[in-house]
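[Q] Does anyone have a clean C-alpha cell version of this?
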Amino acid sequence: MSNVRIERMDDIHVVTLDRPAVRNAVDSDTARELHAAFLAFEDDPLARVAVVHGAHGHFCAGWDLQFGARAAQGGQGGALADLDFDSADARAIGPMGPSRLRLSKPVIAAVSGAAVAGGMELALWCDLRVMEDDAYFGVYCRRFGVPLIDGGTVRLPRLIGMGYAMDLILTGRKVEAAEALQMGLANRVVPRGQAREAAIALARQLAAFPQATMRADRESAHAQWDLPLGEALQQEWQRGKARIPDALDGAQRFAAGEGRHGRF
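[A] Here you go.
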C-alpha cells in the first residue's frame, strides 16, 4: 500500500504522507513516492499550487530511524551516502524525497503535530507553512548524530536569520507554534485540526492570481540570494519585463473597478 496519497482538487494538488505507525517518518520507498508526487505536480500543466501534510495528526517525524537501524544491521549503512547529486539537477532526489527539487510552482506545508528533524526540513522546503497551534518544529535528530542533509542548514538561516537558526540547529530544541510565528518559521497559525483546510484555502487564493507573474516573482526571489545587488535587480527586470502585458491588462481591470480598496 502506498505511503503517499495525491488528491487533485481542480488546480490544487494535496500530497498526504500516511505512515501512522512512525508518525509519518520517511524511509527510502516513501522518499521516492514523495519525490514522484511532486514531479507529477510540477509536470501537470493544470496544477498551480500543492499542499503537503501528514495524516493522523502529525506532519512528519523525519527520516525513519527504525528503517535506518534495520539498514545498518543488514549492512546497508551507506544508503544515505549514495544520494550524491549534481547541483545543476533541479529534479534530484533527496533523502526525504523532494527536498532538492527546484519547482516552478509554490508548495504549502500544512503542519500538525510533529514536524521534526527531516520533517522540519521538508516543511522548510515549502514556500509557506500553515501551522496548528499545538504543532511544533525541532531539529530532534541532534540527539542521535543524524545530520541535516535535506536543506536545513541552508534554508533555516535564509528563512529566519543566522541567530535563530544557530539556536535551533545546535540545540535541537522544540519550537512551538507561537514562537515559530514570531521568528518567521510559520506563516500562519490556526486552531488544532484546521491546518489542512487553511492551507488549501491559501492555495486556492494563490491559484486565482495571474500565474505567470506570480511564478516570475517567486523565481526572482529564489534567484537573488547569491547575486550582487545590481545583478539581482537585473535578473528581476529580465523576468518581470516579460509580464508587462499582464500588468497592463491588470491595470485595465483595476480601472474598471476590480480589486479596489485592497480587495482580493
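[Q] Thanks! Anything notable?
[A] The longest helix spans residues 28-43.
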